[in-house]
Design a protein that fits this description.
single chain, 440 residues, alpha+beta, hpI Integrase, Chain A, five-stranded antiparallel beta sheet, three-stranded antiparallel beta sheet, 16 helices, 12 strands, extended
């Protein structure tokens, strides 16, 4: 018994993994095929007197290639030219246009912009710069999800390598990709059309973190870390007086000043509950010693808002002590060493805290370094009015504050589980009393 041969208009897979099929009949046939495995599809037709006409369809999807092939075949049979297909939207072009034109990107702070550029570069490297975003499917998203979590993606001009990440990072990447695709659906093009007709992955959902790590610092951790920072200060203050070479003494003095600023930054974290970026962006003029107010500038606030918050006398006494130790009069509280008019990067504060925690032999809190102090500050003030706490700590979203920063401790949980009150049903209580009376 002989096997039935495959019809020519059905897809056939060759030994090297490429796909091909022929549409139509002799004299009017469109051939679709791949040259390399998983490569782009081509179409080929025979034009009498001219020979074969071959062009790339710029798609790797068989269904899309067949659709284009059948459209071309219909035009050959009817003599009616097909409507010009929408041009491909390459991922690299989309990212470049989004970063140059989109208000969603341009309205952000410099730090957020840099983070967005990094995410976009990783997306471009993993999905392919020449990928037509119209062909993106859930399959591409799931592949990216797995690769991003595992790490090892090379991106950017310097070919940096991504580390292993948690699910929240993947979710943020896909959220940015969707944002760019939605923006492309609104970008006008010549002829009264938009750049992208629809978001191809609008229906794809990426789950967030399941086991979220939100550690809370303690006052004991704060005291131990601060003491370690003071020990570093004593060490470098001694070296700045005793080392033989002037160059070495000057270097030791700079390190002493650096650790004084690190202690000041840690103290502000614990006392104000503010983000490290807002703290590192402070100027001495932001401290109003007469009105007992601190101005938190919008340019260093995550939400772009200016906050003016009152603080107690002992807070300003602490600020004055650090100002004297640093010998500062004005300018930046935490200036960049090579550019005093600019603030030091927020990451520097985290690095100093980790160095001090290591010196104090404290275990690292899984899930953060500076943010645990923000959660500590919020948790210690859970008995105060929510709005007052939000304004003082710099939260504009109450739900986020309650969900991510209000972390109960064992004492709070024990108070709940030890609650002596019981719920009563008056009707059942009356029936029970009546039954007891009859039994007596």
């Amino acid at each position: 018994m002989t096997l039935r041969q495959t019809r020519r208009d059905q897809w056939r897979k060759s030994k090297n993994g490429t796909w091909a099929c022929s549409l139509g009949h002799r004299g009017c046939r469109v051939r679709l095929f791949q040259i390399t495995k998983d490569g782009s599809f081509y179409r080929e037709v025979h034009i009498p007197g001219k020979g074969r006409d071959r062009i790339s369809l710029k798609t790797r999807e068989r269904a899309e290639a067949e659709k284009l092939g059948r459209t071309l075949l219909a035009s050959l049979l009817t003599g009616i030219a097909p409507k010009p297909a929408a041009s491909a939207v390459r991922l690299g072009e989309l990212i470049k246009a989004f970063l140059a034109e989109s208000p969603m990107f341009l309205d952000n702070t410099d730090r957020t912009k840099e983070e967005t550029r990094t995410r976009a570069s990783i997306l471009c490297s993993a999905l392919g710069e020449d990928t037509d975003v119209r062909t993106l499917t859930e399959h591409h998203v799931r592949q990216y999800e797995a690769r991003r979590r595992a790490g090892g993606i090379r991106y950017g001009p310097k070919k940096l390598v991504t580390p292993k990440v948690r699910q929240r990072t993947v979710q943020a990447d896909i959220k940015l990709l969707k944002q760019m695709l939605y923006w492309a659906c609104t970008r006008p093009m010549p002829g009264g059309v938009v750049w992208l007709e629809r978001n191809p992955i609008a229906h794809v959902r990426v789950k967030g973190e399941v086991d979220v790590q939100r550690p809370v610092a303690s006052v004991e951790r704060f005291d131990a870390t601060r003491q370690a920072m003071q020990q570093f200060q004593q060490r470098y203050a001694e070296e700045s007086r005793t080392l033989a070479k002037p160059k070495d003494r000057a270097r030791a003095h700079r390190r002493y000043v650096s650790w004084v600023r690190a202690e000041f930054g840690l103290t502000l974290l614990e006392a104000t509950g503010r983000r490290r970026g807002a703290i590192m962006g402070l100027r001495w003029s932001d401290f109003d010693f007469e009105a007992k107010r601190v101005t938190w500038r919008a340019e260093h606030d995550k939400k772009g808002r200016t906050w003016v918050v009152a603080y107690p006398d002992d807070f300003f006494a602490m600020v004055r002590e650090f100002q004297k130790k640093l010998g500062a009069v004005g300018g930046r509280v935490f200036p960049r060493e090579e550019k005093p008019d600019e603030p030091s990067p927020p990451e520097l504060l985290s690095q100093r805290i980790r160095q001090a925690e290591d010196a104090a032999e404290l275990p690292k809190l899984v899930g953060g370094t500076c943010h645990p102090y923000r959660r500590k500050w919020r948790t210690e003030r859970s008995h105060h009015p929510i709005k007052a706490v939000a304004v003082a700590g710099g939260w504009s979203d109450f739900d986020t504050m309650l969900k991510c920063y209000d972390q109960p401790d064992d004492a709070d949980l024990l108070a709940v589980t030890s609650e002596p009150r019981k719920r009563h049903d008056p009707s059942l209580a009356k029936a029970a009393a009546s039954s007891s009376t009859k039994a007596g």
